[in-house]
């Protein structure tokens, strides 16, 4: 008989539910940021290196803002910082659309603003999830959140893609102007959604982290394993967000086709996420994580092997499954390690969130750097074809590291429990 996990919405606090609603509203913005900003740059510059520069600017802005956020939390309510993070994503898009020319300086500034947005959003979101959930509910939390996100991600791209194409009524420059006007309409809608999400979020009650030291350079050996996973995760993030848009625009040259391809795969991914989130338990995380990594490797393998329209479709389909499957396992693993070590080392939870972000940054920089080196010294097609495959192979190392981490974590938990029982007995 199947052992069904008895976890549901009733297990969440009101604030956790509001956080889910807020993130669901903001989820309507994320596909636009992840996909169509990159396609806008490609359409108006036809230069993949500019897309990667934009992504690098984002990744530089994120850890810097994570660090600044640690100080801001001492004086500013976490609600305001989280809300500002969402709104800045709209500001970044407005700035991008106001550029007369897609030049390197403009792209860098837009990327840094978006990086600040992500930094404020993710730094505070990670803490809010940590503070409002327990380990036993996190599989369901991330499963439900990812299910809602993927459902939205199956609708938004196809709607936006074909809306953009409806603006392409002419040829050449005239047609491009029509599409760019449609991009500007979408940007204003995105800005409105970020404001709405910010308003809804303020109905929840959230405590800010303790005003303690949050910058450390020495950590427990278990955290070093977590950082290894973070670097490998960052490798893929280095350009995996923009790679789909670059591949789709190269082989299909249509935002409509880009949106349709993403929507089809997202429907399947949404169903998988709901099932995994509802019925999986903490003991299943390594298996789920491994499946996600294998899907990612297969996506990069078929893209490199075929490198045509069929290869891109297979790549998109597998990637849309791999990313949420990885997240539903990775984030609970990360938060459980933070729970454990923050109590043992008596440190602010945010210190681990900040340090983790720097691990991701190193990986992102290496991932994006791999693409740029291949693109500049060989050519862009080779970079699109083989950089992904290189990273897909390296990502498989995460399975071994995750297995070691979970084993060390279990040992440490048992040792901690034994110590607490001894102290309790001696004090009795």
TrEMBL record:
<dbReference type="InterPro" id="IPR052528">
    <property type="entry name" value="Sugar_transport-like"/>
</dbReference>
<feature type="transmembrane region" description="Helical">
    <location>
        <begin position="104"/>
        <end position="123"/>
    </location>
</feature>
<dbReference type="InterPro" id="IPR011701">
    <property type="entry name" value="MFS"/>
</dbReference>
<feature type="transmembrane region" description="Helical">
    <location>
        <begin position="144"/>
        <end position="165"/>
    </location>
</feature>
<feature type="transmembrane region" description="Helical">
    <location>
        <begin position="81"/>
        <end position="98"/>
    </location>
</feature>
<feature type="transmembrane region" description="Helical">
    <location>
        <begin position="20"/>
        <end position="41"/>
    </location>
</feature>
<dbReference type="GO" id="GO:0022857">
    <property type="term" value="F:transmembrane transporter activity"/>
</dbReference>
<keyword id="KW-0472">Membrane</keyword>
<feature type="transmembrane region" description="Helical">
    <location>
        <begin position="286"/>
        <end position="306"/>
    </location>
</feature>
<feature type="transmembrane region" description="Helical">
    <location>
        <begin position="227"/>
        <end position="252"/>
    </location>
</feature>
<feature type="transmembrane region" description="Helical">
    <location>
        <begin position="312"/>
        <end position="333"/>
    </location>
</feature>
<keyword id="KW-1133">Transmembrane helix</keyword>
<protein>
    <submittedName>
        <fullName>MFS transporter</fullName>
    </submittedName>
</protein>
<dbReference type="Pfam" id="PF07690">
    <property type="entry name" value="MFS_1"/>
</dbReference>
<feature type="transmembrane region" description="Helical">
    <location>
        <begin position="185"/>
        <end position="206"/>
    </location>
</feature>
<feature type="transmembrane region" description="Helical">
    <location>
        <begin position="258"/>
        <end position="279"/>
    </location>
</feature>
<feature type="transmembrane region" description="Helical">
    <location>
        <begin position="53"/>
        <end position="74"/>
    </location>
</feature>
<feature type="transmembrane region" description="Helical">
    <location>
        <begin position="384"/>
        <end position="402"/>
    </location>
</feature>
<feature type="transmembrane region" description="Helical">
    <location>
        <begin position="354"/>
        <end position="378"/>
    </location>
</feature>
<keyword id="KW-0812">Transmembrane</keyword>
<dbReference type="InterPro" id="IPR036259">
    <property type="entry name" value="MFS_trans_sf"/>
</dbReference>
């Amino acid at each position: 008989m199947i052992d069904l996990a008895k976890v549901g919405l009733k297990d969440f606090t009101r604030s956790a539910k509001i956080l889910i609603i807020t993130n669901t509203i903001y989820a309507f913005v994320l596909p636009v940021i992840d996909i169509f900003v990159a396609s806008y740059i490609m359409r108006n510059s036809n230069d993949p290196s500019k897309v990667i520069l934009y992504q690098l600017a984002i990744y530089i802005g994120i850890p810097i803002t994570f660090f600044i956020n640690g100080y801001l939390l001492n004086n500013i309510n976490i609600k305001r910082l989280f809300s500002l993070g969402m709104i800045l994503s709209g500001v970044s898009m407005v700035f991008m659309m106001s550029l007369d020319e897609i030049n390197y300086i403009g792209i860098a500034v837009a990327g840094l603003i978006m990086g600040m947005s992500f930094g404020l959003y993710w730094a505070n979101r990670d803490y809010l999830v940590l503070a409002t959930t327990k380990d036993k509910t996190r599989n369901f939390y991330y499963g439900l959140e990812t299910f809602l996100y993927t459902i939205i991600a199956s609708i938004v791209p196809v709607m936006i893609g074909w809306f953009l194409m409806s603006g392409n009524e002419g040829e050449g420059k005239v047609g491009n102007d029509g599409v760019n006007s449609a991009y500007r309409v979408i940007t204003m809608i995105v800005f409105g959604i970020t404001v709405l999400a910010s308003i809804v979020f303020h109905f929840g009650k959230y405590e800010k982290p303790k005003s303690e030291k949050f910058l450390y350079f020495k950590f427990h050996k278990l955290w070093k394993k977590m950082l290894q996973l973070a670097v490998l995760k960052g490798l893929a993030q280095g350009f995996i967000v923009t790679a789909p848009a670059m591949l789709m625009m190269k082989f299909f040259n249509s935002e409509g086709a880009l949106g349709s391809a993403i929507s089809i795969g997202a429907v399947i991914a949404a169903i998988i996420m709901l099932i995994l989130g509802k019925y999986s338990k903490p003991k299943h995380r390594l298996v789920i994580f491994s499946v996600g990594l294998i899907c990612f490797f297969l996506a990069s393998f078929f893209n490199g092997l075929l490198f045509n329209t069929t290869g891109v479709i297979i790549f998109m389909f597998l990637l849309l499954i791999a990313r949420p499957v990885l997240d539903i396992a990775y984030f609970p693993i990360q938060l459980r390690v933070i729970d454990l070590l923050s109590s043992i080392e008596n440190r602010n939870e945010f210190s681990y969130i900040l340090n983790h972000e720097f691990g991701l940054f190193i990986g992102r920089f290496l991932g994006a750097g791999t693409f740029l080196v291949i693109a500049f010294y060989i050519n862009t097609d080779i970079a699109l074809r083989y950089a992904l495959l290189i990273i897909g192979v390296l990502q498989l190392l995460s399975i071994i590291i995750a297995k070691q981490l979970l084993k060390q974590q279990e040992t440490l938990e048992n040792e901690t429990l034994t110590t607490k029982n001894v102290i309790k007995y001696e004090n009795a």
